[in-house]
Amino acid sequence: MTDEDRRRADRLARALGVAGLGLGIAPLTATDAISRLCGVDDSGTARTMLRLAGVRELVHSVLLLGSRSPAPLVWTRVVGDMLDLTALGLAASNRTGHRRTRVLAVTAGVAAITAADVYTALCGLRRRAPEHARAGTVHATITVNRPRDEVYRFWHDFENLPQFMIHLDTVRDLGDGRSHWRATGPLGRTLEWEAEMIDDRPDELIAWHATQGMIAGNSGAVRFTDAPGDRGTEVRVTLQYAPRGGGAVAAFTRLLGEHPDQMVRDDLRRFKQVMETGEVVLSEGMPMGTHAKRQLRQRAAQPMSRGGGGFR
Amino acid sequence: MRATCWMGRGKVEVRDVPDPQILNSHDAIVRVTSTAICGSDLHLYDGFIPTMKKGDVLGHEFMGEVVEVGPEVHDLRPGDRVVVPFPISCGSCWACENELFSICENSNPNAGIAEKLLGHSPAGIYGYSHMLGGFPGGQAEYARVPFADVNPIKIEDDLPDEKVLFLSDIFPTGWIGAEMADIKDGDVVAVWGAGPVGQFAIASAFLMGAERVIAIDRFPYRLRRVERMGADPLDYEEAIDVPDALRDMTGGRGPDCCIDAVGLEAHHATPMYAYDRAKQATRLETDRPFVLREAIMSCRNGGTVSVVGVYGGFVDKFPMGSLMNRSITLRGAQCHVQKYLRPLLDRIRNGDIDPSFVVSHHMSLDDTPRGYRLFRDKREECNKVVLHP
Ligand SMILES: NC(=O)c1ccc[n+]([C@@H]2O[C@H](COP(=O)([O-])OP(=O)(O)OC[C@H]3O[C@@H](n4cnc5c(N)ncnc54)[C@H](O)[C@@H]3O)[C@@H](O)[C@H]2O)c1
Ligand SMILES: [Zn+2]
Ligand SMILES: [Zn+2]
């Protein structure tokens, strides 16, 4: 869920808060007129309930308008709507003629409001389901100015991957197309899993998936094609991650960052640097090569103090 | 070491920072002997280039002596005297192989940031924002130079710093400005901006066979300089309507080749200027394309407009109709400096040109803040400041 969706849910919630002010004040200040409108001017109890509903409506509005992220609070409105609908249902069953018609009309109105409340509340719910907990596909592509067989061979040796995949610490070849991968996740937590090559077509395609460990089920594929005009090799990567709940999986997908596409694209850019120039290019503002992966945030473009990193 | 640091809009300070170290095996460390302030630095100084960070070391025009090399550097050794081109290039990507060094595909570790603003990323540049790599610059005692076998040019004779320093940027930039303008014998060339870049564009245009060069600016001391170079000065404040004045000066045709050596901070005393300034201030438009508009509108039918003045983002009121209907060619580039180092050094050696003509001020590194002020405000007839760390 994007920031934009998040803001929209909150905007909706606030609009409901404002509407609620009107719905709350009317039964308190014009009880007679409103009870006539609702077709319940024949009952003292109904008039009291109407006033109580007004007070409740105001409480919801104060909550919604006072909160910085009001969308989840809309659930309190949904509960109130249920009470109102129940009361109206009772009122309708007790009445006949034009009063009954009015009660039913008002019921329809309240049902519409309920629908709006439920919709907004659901938007608010979705906002709390973290992006990285959802399954997804990440795709990235780059052109490498090297012959296809060379590019394929480098990738085929999975032990090379940590040179350019920023989240990997090591990959160990276990033979028979199996390998052991290790990454450091957020908060320094180590994640490990085993992967297996599931397809391997020389100079064309390599596909793998995680078989054991915390992210079993995740898979990746890389395809190699000749770039037109002798410009080397076009490399296309697709990663599929299928989180199945659990902290470790969430932590892994968080490895890929807020913007997994960008992350994989940056990995591919480093792959290109390694293939074309022999190593990952470092700048002082962005000193996160393979051996200097200390910070993901930019520092000032100033030399680093001794021992600060670099290729050694 | 001491280094010139960007400390926010309108503020540079010379501060103590750590000495640079080798980070990549192709790096060299250079002890800077001469470095200069560029019109491009003014865009940073004035806060128009995004993604600067407080403390960033500035400077992309520098030369000096190699003091340390990484294990994969084979053609340079400590003691070599070098001029360093401002774009950082890897030498092995498709762009570098095609001599398009300023769009090297490997030298910007922050390519992802640049892509967001520009679509694709250009090369990294020393001291020129994080979007262009986050590399510390050369207005300092020492600088790290990546891909040391590819980038710097060795100066093996005793030409003084002053004569070769500008190979790092403005001489090749003026040259490429003229080259992109597609100058043919007998052409009339108009150059907007009589700053150092404009001056090198004028000199290059004559070397390429231009019959006449018209130089547009408003500072009398700069117009006098270009007049001495053989150009016809045009004071845009006096002329009021530059395209009209140019039409007059060219028998109604307009200049064959137009060169924008001003860029995104163009100044002008018309309502359009107020419009662009206001939009720029409110970030509705990042650049003030006044000169670009004028160059396109002035250019002769079928002529060429060449842009070396720096732009950062988006422009408004772009005269696309004029460009399309009148068959105008528009080209631009950050200079592919490495391509021109050897031939232009040869021209300096032959005596075709002595680039030191642009220098107006020498200062010590500690005086850099004053240098920025003088150069920005065009005071004390400031034309080009050279700093000596
Ligand atoms: N493309 C490149 O590789 C490259 C390299 C170096 C510099 N540059 C750019 O070249 C430009 C000039 O650099 P410089 O060092 O000569 O800077 P400068 O500030 O010394 O010169 C700019 C000149 O433009 C003049 N000017 C402003 N508004 C004008 C207008 N409306 N019409 C005519 N002239 C106008 C100013 O009076 C000034 O003399 C800058 O934008 C700089 O960033 C580009
Ligand atoms: Zn410059
Ligand atoms: Zn390159």
From TrEMBL, chain A:
It comes from the Bacteria. Gene3D superfamilies: 3.30.530.20. Signal peptide: none annotated. Pfam families: Polyketide_cyc. Keywords: Membrane, Transmembrane, Transmembrane helix. Residues 144-268 form the Coenzyme Q-binding protein COQ10 START domain. It comes from Actinoallomurus spadix. The chain crosses the membrane at residues 12-30. SUPFAM superfamilies: Bet v1-like. InterPro entries: COQ10_START, ORF3, START-like_dom_sf. This is Coenzyme Q-binding protein COQ10 START domain-containing protein. The lineage of its organism: Bacteria, Bacillati, Actinomycetota, Actinomycetes, Streptosporangiales.
TrEMBL record, chain B:
Residues 25-153 form the Alcohol dehydrogenase-like N-terminal domain. Residues 196-265 form the Alcohol dehydrogenase-like C-terminal domain. Keywords: Metal-binding, Oxidoreductase, Zinc. It comes from the Bacteria. Its cofactor is Zn(2+). Pfam families: ADH_N, ADH_zinc_N. Belongs to the zinc-containing alcohol dehydrogenase family. This is Zinc-dependent alcohol dehydrogenase. The lineage of its organism: Bacteria, Bacillati, Actinomycetota, Actinomycetes, Streptosporangiales.
